[in-house]
Amino acid sequence: MSTFTVTVRTPAQVVTYPAIAPTSADAILDALDQFGIASVSALPLVGGQHA
User: Fold this and answer.
1) Is residue 29 helix, strand or coil?
2) Would you call 42 exposed, middle or buried from its count of C-beta atoms within 10 A (0-12, 13-18, 19+)?
3) Whether the model pTM is above 0.85
4) What are the tens digits of pLDDT across the range 4-38?
5) By the 8 A CB rule, do 22 and 2 touch?
6) What CA–CA distance (Å, rounded) separates 9 from 14?
7) What is the dihedral of CA 4, 20, 22, 29, to 10 degrees?
8) b or e along 2-36 (b: 16 or more beta carbons within 10 Å of the residue's beta carbon)?
9) How far is CA 46 from each of CA 1, 5, 9, 43, rounded to the nearest angstrom?
C-alpha cells in the first residue's frame, strides 16, 4: 500500500485528502466512486513529501 494526496475537482467544490491504496489508479477509482464525475489526481507521498 502507498499513500497519495488525492485532489477531486467537481463543478461545486475542490476536495483534497490523503488516501492509502495499492496504486494511484485505485485511489482515483475510489474518489470517482465517492464523488461521481469529477477531475481527479493522485500524487504519491514519499516521506511526507510528494515524489
Assistant:
1) helix
2) buried
3) no
4) 999 999 888 999 999 999 999 999 999 999 998 78
5) yes
6) 5
7) -80
8) bebebbbeeeeeeeeeebebeebebbbebbeeebe
9) 12, 11, 23, 10
